[in-house]
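Predict the holo structure. Ligand: zinc ion.
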Amino acid sequence: MIYSVIVDLSASEVDRIYDYKGEGYSVGTRVLVNFANRATEGFIVAQKEQSDYDPDKIKEIIRPLDDFVAISSEMLQLGEFMRKEYHLRWADVLRLFIPAEMRKNRVKALSKKQVCLATNDSLDVILSSLKPNATMQRDLVTFLYAEGATLAETINAEFGNGALRALIDKGIVATHEIVVRRTPYKDLKLKPAEVRELLPAQQHAVDTVLADRHGKYLLHGVTGSGKTEVYLTIMERIVAEGKNCIMLVPEISLTPAVLSQLRERFGDSVALLHSGLSAGERYDEWLRIKDGEARIAVGARSAVFAPMSNIGAIIIDEEHDSSYISDFNPRYNTQEVANFRAEQNGAFLVLGSATPSLGSYYAARHGKLKLIEMPERINKRPLPKVEIVDMTVETRSGNRGIFSRSLKQQLGDTLDKGNQAMLFLNRRGYSSFMMCTKCGYVAKCTDCDVSLTVHREDNMLKCHYCGKHYYILDKCPNCHESSFRQGKIGTQQIVQLLNEMYPDVKVLRMDADTTQTKEGHVKILDAFAKGEAQILVGTQMIAKGHDFPKVTLVGILDGDQSLHYSDYLSTERTFQLITQVAGRSGRDKDAGSVVLQTYTPTHYCLQLAARQDYFSFYKREINLREASAFPPFAEIIRILYTGEKEQDCIDQLTEQYAEITNLKTKYSLDFYYLDKMRCPLKRAEKKYRFQILIKLSKNNLTEIIPQIYDICDGKKRSSVQISVERNPQNLS
Ligand code: ADP
Ligand code: ZN
């Protein structure tokens, strides 16, 4: 038999099918093959009777790598779709479908020794064969008789190694190896699952979804409307019907609280796929899904590739979240992948959010998704009251600090009442840059076109792009003066200010710096939930999903921060972020309030976010998008050229730009825009960055996009990396 093999090397030169000989392999198996005189891992993606190559030159597959088929035929179809849709290399796609450590054999099944009785005799008979004073041995036998096979480590700890060995020598007890699954968060404390009666809005949502098992739904429910309960009920039904489910949540919302809820309801049927797991845990959870032991796969973006068949439902919570779009190789859109898998499996798809992406809401309003609205919080709890504070007024009245008078006042009240507050600022570090007041020098990263952020805790300057560290300046390297001005305040400095204002109040901080360790963010959220601190300061990490009943005040320190970028998505993102952060306040009995500080208090985005008026925002923004031809009314394509040799990038770009210009003449009506430029982030990690930006009508995409991909695949310089992105989330 001839097998078509993709070698597991991520390079365009080898991104094609190679033929190998062998017998008895299944398509989807990982194998070792001889490639360019090296033993190389690969994937069998097809089989055939004959090859077009000289049969004598076709090499034999060396051996299989696993004793199972790693990639199902269904996943191979998905891979084909992704390759075409996103212009990806086979190897990069297939790598997404298996735990990373399976490659190069870096993870194995964990086996442990188990002890059991080696005889079928009754307990009395066995005991009578032992000396009356051999108490340990007698206890051990009695234990095994009652409990059955037990791990050797447990037996050793309880009865000692001596007793065990003696019994093995006597032939009464035997040991054997068994495979044990490593379970993440094994020790979560679970409460018995609460049987909750669904509220009418939840019941309506569940009924609507279950009425059509092939539908696509958008569940638009305000923060605290009880969407989670809807997801759980739906999954319960699907699992009871014998089908499997995938539930996706943004990485940061994947907290033990969420996992507990799932385990309380579904026990061992839940498997978690998460970057924070150890290699062994990830491998074992993946196997449990593949073998059908786990019926529900929950995880961040990559869990959409759960090796599951017979899927009945795919749920994407917080569907607007930008983490669902991978913006590095391999680039893909999780919703589109989920959609493909749902159709493949005859499953339904539920997208949920309090602030749906404009694209999804537009699709729902135009019949492509069924819209389900949950407009009220659970038990008619009011949405928090949002006060917009005009910071220009604060400055004029002499308050130059980061906290407005109103925020200070309300923070004081909240602390006095014993409640909790969350302060949101999407800027980590101490201050955003360090500038010489004499000559204007600003400290920048040597590898990136990025100014360095001041970090006081370890007294360093850090590049937030590549992570490089530098000593803090005591003298300007340019004019040798030592007078510096610092940029905008970051989360570290907020905590310092709070500590000065309220010396007795415990403050926690959650940002990329405090959550680097495994389970770092879990520890912070846990401590805050337990009331170990009264204030939580954080970046957008604190915006998502969390349900803290004692939080009655949310302060948004810089409401303008993401608003005034030139990026067409910045208004939508700001609206989502503010609505989500505000939604953390007043989720329990005590009403909540929100202070939103801004220098542009009349901006419609902030006004409507303050009223949590999604629909008005949607109408306004979608009209703008239509008038200016932006997604969902057009498709944006960016071709990104990066490389250490600037001129090579420019030459490569210029050549391909000429070809795309030709394409434009052919499809002049479909090209709304075409231009080439340096990227706003001119250089990153030593590489120069250039781009071609294209805006296309939706009319002939299936014809034009493959031609653009072909142009990008044309004559290439090895010093330049080229990537194409469709509707990128980030245009920097
Ligand atoms: P959302 O995800 O829509 O923001 P959650 O699912 O977190 O909202 O629900 C908000 C709160 O309401 C949670 O504390 C949840 O336990 C509670 N809740 C949800 N459904 C019910 C119900 N049917 N009865 C009582 N409480 C509920
Ligand atoms: Zn850098």
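The first strand starts at residue 2 and ends at 7. Residues 482 and 524 are 38 Å apart (CA to CA).
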